[in-house]
Amino acid sequence: MTQDPNLTAPVGAAVSEGAYVPAQLPVGLRRVPSGVDEVTTEHLVVNFGPQHPSTHGVLRMIIEADGEEVVGAEMSIGYLHRGIEKLAEHRRYNALGTLMDRGDYTSGIHGELAAAMVTEKLLEIEVPEKAHWIRSLMGEVNRIASHLVWYGTFGLDAGAMGQFLYAVRDREDLLDILEAVSGSRMMFNYVRPGGVLADLPAGIDQKLRAFVDIFDVHIEEHDQLLGGNEIFQSRVHGVGVIDKQTAIGFGLTGANLRASGVGFDVRRDRPYAAYEKLDFTVPMATEGDCWARYAVRMEEMRQSVRMIRQCLDGMPEGDFTAKVPKVLRPPAGEAYAAVESPRGEWGVHLVSDGSDTPYRLRYRPPALYALQVVEAIMPGSLIADAIVTAGSVDLVLGEIDR
């Protein structure tokens, strides 16, 4: 009979009914250090989550710590599983957007757009020009709203409190605009195959222009309030470094990839909607640390403001949707479409068998790849820095578990 150092009872020992059986630790985590040639202390295995203030959503981080230093870590997911990919096999094509809203619930416009685009590829639907511009406009509005959630919670992870309240103030204004356009504050169900559900309501352009005018001031205040704080700077500079090779190897996209020196953005490199006609800059950094990811996302919000103004100025006349059948039946085949969500390349791979429901849907969640690289780079950091690192990559558990 062998003794597992991670357990209080021998492995394989007979256990009487009702007796306590301690759970085994994940592979790679140990309470007892492996070295025997020097004085060592027992390692502490700490659970962060799945219900814990330091986790973004229902994430369980199992950390092996030697004092304050992280020796090993494992991310345990699945607490928010919705079965989106399986449910899609029983939904008609024009209802896929409702499932996407429940994946990355902070940026539903982007998920709806990916599902609509892949359906349009299969059916060869030609989307009206105005619908393209509305899609880009609402996508950038949703991007700022999503980044404000990240900005506020990232500050909380680093120990800041006040800036979160100011971020929520600006996000509320954006949610009011999104509600006026789509009828909902989170589960929009606005982007549909062929275009969008409805035209922009009267007066919404004035509300958007008023918001971006004041946000030009607020974004600089946000940046100074958090990024200008020397305590915050010391918490994020040189922490959670993801080098270029590691970022590519783990399949990172979005701001996490661009902060490591790889300049890939779906909006620019594989243009969709109206992005080919918009003038914008893709923010970049090379350090790959928490500060670089912060700086890239702050600049992304400035660029989104710039694109919102261009969309309002260049909005064409015409139809907001193409004429499509009520029941969509794409021919047998498969297609892939991707958008640049606030977290990176959000892709949908769809396989059709010719019926009115998908044969198979594969959802590419960019936050899942970010979570995997956090697990890889966490050993060697302090526990407090591990929390900041996880916050810096902008995790949304709805799309990770999906």
Please state the average pLDDT score.
89
The topology string of helices and strands comes to EEEHHHHHEEHHHHHHEEEHHH
Spatial ordering of strands, largest sheet: 1-2-3
Helix content: 40-55%
CATH topology: Cytochrome-c3 Hydrogenase, chain B
> Under the CATH scheme, which architecture would be assigned?
Orthogonal Bundle
Count up the helices: 14
Termini Cα gap: 42 Å
| Number of E-type strands | 8
Query: Gyration radius, to the nearest Å?
Result: 23 Å
Number of domains in the coordinates? 1
Rough outline = globular
Low-confidence stretches: 1-16
User: In the CATH hierarchy, what is the superfamily?
Assistant: Cytochrome-c3 Hydrogenase, chain B
Helical/strand content category: alpha+beta
Main sheet properties: 3 strands, antiparallel
Question: How is this structure best described in words?
Answer:
- The protein is an alpha+beta fold and 402 residues long.
- It has a single domain, classed as Cytochrome-c3 Hydrogenase, chain B, CATH 1.10.645.10.
- The protein contains 14 helices and 8 strands.
- A hairpin with a 7-residue loop joins β7 and β8 (360-364).
- The relative contact order is 0.17.
